[in-house]
Hints:
Helix content is about 50%, strand content about 10%. It is of the alpha/beta class.
Amino acid sequence: MPTLLLVDDHPVVREGYRRLLERQPGFTVAAEAGTAAEAYRLYKAEAPDLVILDLSLPGPSGIEAIRHIRQWDGDACILVFSMRTSAAVARQAFAAGASGYVSKASAPRDLLTAAAGVLRGERAMSHDIALAIAQDEVSGGRTTLDDLSPREIEILGMTAAGATAAAVAEALCLSLKTVQNNLSLIRAKLGARTDAHLVWIAVGAGLVGGPPWAET
């Protein structure tokens, strides 16, 4: 029976996922995590068959969790379940090692179908994510964030959400100088004239929005 690791910083939300998934034959939730660090630790301890995770976590994001888990286990099956629906964010998740991406606006059945597909070794996406990526490809296949690395995307997201450089450094276990250097590179790559312009670019690209990095 496939075992699952649920990663979301809201316990009530995880409980809802657990009930939905365990009503289906063949799914059992082995562990739950609320942070990227906890997800990595529990993955190594429990070796679940599938990880279902949100990208918006306190401290390091789900992108960081995906990257670390895949570095530990190159065959890990990871399904993103997030409010983020931009093509740029979805591509960053896939580049980090995700096997599927479903938006939280999707019907419950879409999550179950994607989970089953990822476990079969397929790449799964909800309709809105697939449409966003297709539209992006038709329009030229590049977005504002395509020149940024996954680490730069993460730093940009946390900064646009209001985190100071010191807070970003602490959360990502980086030196303050490293974060400041990355922010300088990000501004140069994006052509951001001010910090407000940088936030505007991040919001326009769908990287942040609403209560940043804390949505359900």
